[in-house]
Amino acid sequence: MPPTGPARPVRTGSSHDEPVLVVGAPLSGTVRALTDVPDPVFAQEFVGPGLAIEPTVDRDGISTVVAPAAGVLGSLFPHAFALETPGGRTVLVHLGIDTVRLGGEGFQLHVEAGDQVEVGATLLSWEPERVAALGLPTVCPVVALQGDPAALTTLVEPGRAVRAGEPVLSWA
User: What are the protein's GO molecular function terms (predicted)?
Assistant: First the structure.
């Protein structure tokens, strides 16, 4: 279903026969341009186009991460996941930069790899302030894995605050 709001041009010539995939924010925070992520793999879109979100936390210092679309968790780590959608597209979400080095410290999984999830399902929670205290960036890339940049539309401008589940990308 297309996002609500102003009409957007319809793209044609997609490599997918499925309708447009609307990707929600996997967590609440402030939208950042992917080019501003302090990691060249993401900033230079080597894995695909997208955006990033600098997380906000609740009063307990926790950031809850939800499924940005419906699909199957193909890969799942405490710091990252790849969500395979029914239309054959994969959305990659990476929580912080170089957080693999933490070995799961500060992260709690609520699902398992292979699980079928609905939009907005809670996937994991983490402590961005703890990650930052360990000297790691907390910005979270949200990437259309191996996606064509021409097929992706950013629905929110960098600098804008979003809530978990709010539409942020449209992938034709």
Answer: kinase activity
Confidence check: pLDDT of 135 > 50:
yes
- Give the lowest-confidence range in 8-22, 80-94, 144-158: 8-22
Domain 27-171 CATH (choose: 2.60.40.1930, 3.40.50.150, 2.70.70.10, 3.40.50.10950)? 2.70.70.10
- Closest by CA to 93, choosing from 148, 33, 23, is 23
Domain parsing of the chain, residue ranges: 27-171
Q: 16 catalytic, yes or no?
A: no
Q: Cα–Cα distance between 14 and 33 in angstroms, integer?
A: 24
Q: Which of 16, 79, 94, 110 is catalytic?
A: 94
pTM of the model: 0.89
